[in-house]
Design a protein that fits this description.
- The complex is a heterodimer of chains A (217) and B (234).
- Chain A is of the alpha/beta class and 217 residues long.
- Chain A has a single domain (4-207), classed as Glutaconate Coenzyme A-transferase.
- Chain A is 16% helix and 24% strand.
- Chain A is built from 5 helices and 13 strands.
- Chain A has a 10-stranded mixed sheet. In chain A, strands 7-6-9 form a 3-stranded mixed sheet, with no helix packed on it.
- Chain A starts with a helix and ends in a 10-residue tail after the last strand.
- Chain B is built from 6 helices and 11 strands.
- In chain B, strands 1, 2, 3, 4, 8, 9, 10 and 11 form an 8-stranded mixed sheet that branches. In chain B, strands 5-7-6 form a 3-stranded antiparallel sheet.
- In chain B, α3 (61-66) links the parallel β2 (47-50) and β3.
- Chain B is globular, with a radius of gyration of 18 Å.
- Classes of the chains: A alpha/beta (217), B alpha/beta (234).
- Chains A and B meet through α3 and α4 of A and α4, α5 and α6 of B.
Chain lengths: 217, 234
């Protein structure tokens, strides 16, 4: 079974040289720590920067340089800064090759819910709806089950949706799964996790074809 | 062409209760601190505020919320504010949450003379309820309307008397789009310079969009999530 860093490490393997990538808050942010050295990707933060670098050294933080999670960041050589309207033109206009975001629920047709729980304080969708509505290549990074042990990979989302039929791949602590017309297709198992464990933790339709390889982390 | 006003009081002249106000900034980054503090002092209320976020309890738009000066917030994310939560749950505060990209585009289009546009964001979600759907290239899109404001208040790094503005870092965010969408746009800047000092090739907001400009003072520039690494980390 993977921890959050393991999920991030597996997703980092999806990155291709030359891609522009938007990472959401939470597990997705960790992906930046595991990009292979020979793969050059440029990270976008939707508040308006391409070429986001690591956190600044203590004492070098700049209130005028933050990411979409409001954390202080640095700008790498070759970075560029732009306004919000331009930033979402990059997103909506499909100039970003990959979006990684967290989710509360994903359905087996690729719907995603990650912004609202009825009866609880609603914080807002931020840029998530624009990101999922436009990107061709959306990977969800999340735990397979919630804190109560219930599956987050469902036949149908129970929470208000962020986007419909948009998720392409889900990477969890247990597995890598692709969204297909017939449901979640099991691609890889996490180290030490059996197909049965994945079956038991997946409520949505699950397709298992042949031997399922273990992830190489 | 001289847009320069003496200070924040003159800049906010005519701003009244019940108006719709756009305020630039993302989180606490690039917010018009001087104007917000003055609006608290003026006591204007029943405001509709269009801003990506709503500040924190004791800074930014949170200060206006504390004094119950805001009737309605139009934002994309409002998570960091306890008083906001209290007023929203009790029904004192009306809240319209819209996708961040749609918010930016609605401001930009409001300033650009495009009254409405189609976007894929929010289709199939609550955001799409009651909105016209049309398919382009086989994909569903929602009709969204443009936003304008009685006053748009933005914060820039440098500006000149003609209203030309340059922002610093990610403090740019919503400021340029909102600057376009105000019937009256007020720019507060950290440094007011003479026309000619800013390179015309590197102006972010052309002065035509700005009606009033002044140099603010005592910028606190609070950091919401101070995140650092130590020298030993690679």
């Amino acid at each position: 079974m993977l921890d959050k860093n393991g999920i991030a490490q597996r997703i980092a393997q999806e990155m291709k040289d030359g891609w522009y990538v938007n990472l959401g808050i939470g597990i997705p942010t960790l992906v930046a720590n595991y990009i292979p050295e020979d793969v050059n990707v440029v990270f976008q933060s939707e508040n308006g920067i391409l070429g986001m670098g690591p956190f600044p050294y203590d004492g070098e933080e700049d209130a005028d340089l933050i990411n979409a999670g409001k954390q202080t960041i640095t700008a790498l050589p070759g970075a560029c800064i732009f306004d919000s309207a331009t930033s979402f033109a990059m997103i909506r206009g499909q100039h970003i090759q990959m979006t990684v975001l967290g989710a509360m629920e994903v359905s087996d047709n690729g719907d995603i819910a990650n912004w609202k729980i009825p009866g609880r304080m609603v914080k807002g969708m931020g840029g998530a709806m624009d990101l999922v509505a436009s990107a061709d290549n959306i990977i969800v990074a999340m735990m397979h089950t919630n804190k109560k042990g219930h599956s987050k990979l469902l036949r149908q989302c129970s929470l208000p949706l962020t986007g419909v039929s948009c998720v392409k791949r889900v990477v969890t602590n247990l597995a890598v799964l692709d969204i297909t017309d017939l449901g979640f297709k099991l691609i890889e198992r996490a180290p030490g996790v059996s197909v049965d464990e994945i079956k038991n933790s997946t409520e949505g339709r699950l397709i298992i074809e042949g031997e399922i390889p273990e992830m190489k982390i | 062409m001289n847009k320069h006003v003496k200070g924040v009081s003159e800049a906010l002249a005519g701003l009244e209760s019940g108006m719709t106000i756009m305020l630039g900034g993302f989180g606490l980054c690039g917010i018009p601190e001087n104007c917000i503090n003055k609006m608290v002092e003026l006591g204007v209320n029943n405001l509709t505020c269009i801003s990506n976020n709503a500040g924190v309890d004791d800074f930014g738009l949170g200060l206006l919320l504390q004094k119950h000066q805001i009737k309605k917030m139009i934002s994309s994310y409002v998570g960091e504010n306890d008083e906001f939560e209290r007023q929203m749950l009790s029904g004192e505060l009306e809240v319209d949450l819209i996708p961040q990209g749609s918010l930016a585009a609605r401001c930009y289009m409001g300033g650009a003379g495009v009254p409405a546009f189609f976007t894929p964001a929010g289709y199939g979600t609550e955001v799409g309820e009651g909105k016209e759907v049309r398919y382009f290239n086989g994909k569903p899109h929602l009709l969204e309307s443009a936003l304008t404001a009685d006053y748009a208040i933005v914060k820039a790094w440098k500006g000149d008397r003609f209203g030309n503005l340059v922002y610093k870092g990610t403090a740019r965010n919503f400021n340029p789009a909102m600057a376009m969408a105000g019937k009256i746009t007020i720019a507060e800047v950290e440094e007011l310079v003479e026309p000619g000092e800013l390179d015309p090739n590197f102006i972010h907001t052309p002065g035509i969009f700005v009606q009033r400009i002044f140099q603010g003072d005592k910028y606190e520039k609070r950091i919401e999530q101070r995140t650092v690494r130590t020298k030993s980390e690679s």
